[in-house]
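thread: overnight batch results

M.L. [08:02]
morning all. the overnight job finished for the chain we discussed friday. pasting input first so we're all looking at the same thing
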Amino acid sequence: MMKYVNKMKTAAVTAAVILISLVFLYVGTAGLWDIGISDRLNQRESVTNKKIYIIGIDDKTLEQYGPVNTWSREIPAKLVSLLNGADSARPAVIGFDVIYSEEADKEADDIFARVCGEADNVVAAMSFSFKEQPEQGADGKTVYNPYHVDYVIEPYDSLKNAVMCGFANTFVDTDGYVRQAMAYLDYEGERAYSLSSQVYRIYQESRGEEAAFPAVYGRNNRYYFTYSGKPRGYSVISMADVLDGTVNPAVFQDAVVLVGAYAVGMQDAYMPAIAHNSQMYGVEIHANIIEALLEGKTQLPVQPFGYALAAALLCGLFYLFSEKARMLYSTILLAALTVFDVVFVRVMYGKGRIVPVILLPVCLLVIYLVQMVRGYIAEILRRRRVVDVFKQYVAPQVVDKISKDKDFELVIGGENRHIAVLFVDIRGFTTMSESLKPEEVVEILNEYLGLTTQAIFDNGGTLDKFVGDATMAVFNAPFDLEDYIFRAVATAWDMQAGADRIAGKFRERYGKSVSFGIGVNCGNAVVGNIGCDFRMDYTAIGDTVNTAARLESNAQPGQILISREVYEAVKDRVAATPLGEISLKGKSKGVFVYQVDGLERASVT
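M.L. [08:03]
and the structure it wrote out:
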């Protein structure tokens, strides 16, 4: 049955992890905080391609030429002519991250279009305007496409016909950071490529290499990319410096040249994944995307269901381990799995897969905490059971001490302790029970046993057992008890005093009176849980116990007998009459016995 329960628990944990993983991976916003951690772990500045330049339309350029929307198209035409002035020193490709959509001065517009067409290495920017719209999927179900093309902003006709175009849209995740790019988009039966994709393709052709486009995912052909540089990580040259000849165009030979906004007022800045809380201009983001394509630093999200199964399997095994292992070993395993997760995430990222960073450690931590809380609760319940058990043996103040003592443990089996043992028996009980009704006998018995129990508890002793009309108590077990031998004698004295108080009540009610015979001894004994797996009793065994029982059986009604060992321990605080050596049943040698006649109550500590 227990194995079945454990299997059910493990199955429940596994199913829960699968569900959590799928929700985490499929629900877009659920994994954004995780991908933010992935940014910090995996995005590293490492600009390796020195053949990507940015010609920035910066504050210097705007100050010299005025706002971009007032420029004659002869200005960008001059830039293209300067860059392509010598066949041996021309760039491999020039990408304009500026959309020239409206015709202004036809003559200047045509000049710009003709210069770009003759250069045959220019890519112009276009832009899609997206609008979320319901569409019918291949399975006939209606889905909402956030990237439905509402309209297109394209270059003016003569420029559009003279150059290749690529859409320059920057895609921002819902947390405000740019970490994804769209490779292409099928629109009106044709495939439109992004500006970065077009520049990358032309650059590869110029080097005699084939453009290897990355794998994409989703209905909108996206991929993640690794940034190579933080803001201003690439060589940025003012457009004004190129136009006035300050910079020699030969530096751009066989390079990728991107022309775009590089001034705050042009409102083309975004939050890059590589530098949270910083901004990067759109033209720099395109540079990073192009380098990611060149270096193969693109990624796809991990396949959700496969990852969910793997995470669930690992969590299930961890749950089984933590069920049986000590918390220390579970803690070590949790730490090891967390380190493994971080290493695995880094390795997979290098192989082009984005794996959640914290999903697995969080699931493992939750399992660990649940097990820790369960263990804590189990320990509390175990202690409570121990306390409840000992309430049947010891005084309430003793129970309080046990429950507050963090180091207290029951010793399974027995331990050798020096204790004091008390036996008390009702004299005349058998004769009395023959002449009274059973319920009357029970009432008398309960009254006397209640008296003996209360006396034991009042003096801090442990009630060992009831044997018919007899009671056995031990002192200094299961915990250390101060002045325990005197406490045992004081308990015997309290029992006799209590018996005298209630004797008259039963004489009037039933015409019967009984009294106690008590024996007290001290010495070493084996104390602990004695018995077997399915039935055990907390008791004391040994010659010390047997001698105390024999003293009780030799005591006359109303008499308290103690051994020499007891007397020597308490003689300064009790009044006792030596009775001499008497022989006890089962012992080869006699025992010197004393009768207790009184004691100093104030001496009890």
